[in-house]
Amino acid sequence: MTQTYPFTPAGLPELPPALAILRDNVFQHALKTGSFTLKSGRQSSWFLDTKQTMCRPDGMLAVANAALEILPKEAQAIGGLTMGADPVAYGIAAIAATRGSQLRSFSVRKEAKDHGITGRIAGALQPGDKVVITEDTVTRGTSIFEAVDAVRAFGADPVFITVIVDRGGTCADMAAAAGIEYRPLLTAPDLGYEFGS
Question: Which of 53, 76, 111, 169 has its CB 3.0 to 4.6 Å from that of 59, i.e. a possible disulfide?
Answer without folding.
Answer: 53
